[in-house]
C-alpha cells in the first residue's frame, strides 16, 4: 500500500520504489515525496552520494517532518540513524505518519502489528600471553563479530602471533575430537578434506552427525567437497 502510494504520488517524476528499506534510506525519495505532498522546500541537495551527506540530508528532512507534523522528540518512532541503517520498522512508522498527515483518506489497514526479533551480537575476545614474563606487551587479541575480519587484522598487523593462535585452536579441537580417538597436529593438512571439521561439529554440544552423509576417508576432490 505504501509503495503504491509513493509511486503514484511520484509518478510524474519517474521515481519507482521497489523496496522501502533500500530506496528510502538515503533521503532522495523522502525529499521528493515531501516536496510533492506538502510543497516543502528543503534546503538540501537532491543527491547525497556519501554517508555524511546522506546523514545531513536525513537530519534536515526529519526535522522538517517533525515540525510539519508538530511532533515532539519523545513522540518520534524513527531517527536519522534508524532510517540510514535501513530499519524497516522505523521507515514504516515514518511513512505512516507522513501519509496520515498529508493524505488522511489513504485506506490504511487498521490494527497492524509487527513482530520484531532482536539479535544480540556476541563479541568474543581471546587474550593469549605469548611471553609469561611480560604479559603487558605480548597480548594477542581476536575480536569475532567485527565488520573487519579479525584474522585479516591478525595476518596484517601481528603475523608473529599466528602460531600462538593456532596453538589455542589445536587445543580446542583436540579437546573434542580426542573423544573419538583422534589427534590433530596440523590444522592446514588435517582439515583439508573436511572430515575432522565435520567430526568436530558433530562433537560440539552433542550434535548428532549422520556418518552416511559424508566420506570418512575421501579419495577424491569430489568426495572432499
TrEMBL record:
Predominant cellular place of this UniProt entry's protein: cytoplasm
Residues annotated as domain Calponin-homology (CH): 1-103, 163-225
Cellular location(s): Cytoplasm, Cytoskeleton
Assigned keywords, A-Z: Actin-binding, Cell adhesion, Cytoplasm, Cytoskeleton, Repeat
GO CC field: actin cytoskeleton; cytoplasm; focal adhesion
GO molecular function, one term: actin binding
Alphabetized SUPFAM superfamilies for the sequence: Calponin-homology domain, CH-domain
Gene Ontology process terms (BP): actin cytoskeleton organization; cell projection assembly; establishment or maintenance of cell polarity regulating cell shape; substrate adhesion-dependent cell spreading
Family membership: Belongs to the parvin family.
Protein's recorded name: PARVG protein
Annotated source species: Anhinga rufa (African darter)
Amino acid at each position: 500500500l505504501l509503495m503504491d502510494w509513493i509511486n503514484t504520488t511520484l509518478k510524474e517524476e519517474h521515481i519507482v520504489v521497489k523496496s522501502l528499506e533500500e530506496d528510502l534510506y538515503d533521503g532522495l525519495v523522502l525529499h521528493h515525496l515531501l516536496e510533492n505532498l506538502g510543497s516543502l522546500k528543503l534546503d538540501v541537495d537532491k543527491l547525497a552520494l556519501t554517508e555524511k551527506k546522506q546523514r545531513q540530508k536525513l537530519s534536515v528532512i526529519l526535522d522538517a517532518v517533525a515540525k510539519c507534523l508538530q511532533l515532539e522528540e519523545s513522540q518520534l518512532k524513527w531517527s536519522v540513524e534508524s532510517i540510514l541503517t535501513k530499519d524497516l520498522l522505523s521507515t514504516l512508522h515514518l511513512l505512516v505518519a507522513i501519509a496520515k498527515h498529508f493524505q488522511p483518506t489513504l485506506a490504511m489497514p487498521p490494527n497492524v502489528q509487527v513482530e520484531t526479533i532482536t539479535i544480540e551480537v556476541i563479541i568474543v575476545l581471546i587474550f593469549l600471553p605469548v611471553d609469561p614474563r611480560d604479559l603487558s606487551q605480548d597480548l594477542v587479541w581476536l575480536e569475532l563479530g567485527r565488520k573487519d575480519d579479525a584474522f585479516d587484522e591478525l595476518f596484517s598487523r601481528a603475523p608473529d602471533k599466528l602460531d600462538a593462535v593456532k596453538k589455542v585452536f589445536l587445543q580446542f579441537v583436540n579437546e573434542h575430537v580426542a573423544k573419538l580417538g583422534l589427534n590433530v597436529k596440523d590444522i592446514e593438512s588435517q582439515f583439508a578434506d573436511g572430515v575432522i571439521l565435520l567430526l568436530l561439529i558433530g562433537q560440539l554440544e552433542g550434535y548428532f552427525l549422520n556418518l552416511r552423509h559424508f566420506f570418512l576417508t575421501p579419495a577424491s576432490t569430489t568426495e572432499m567437497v
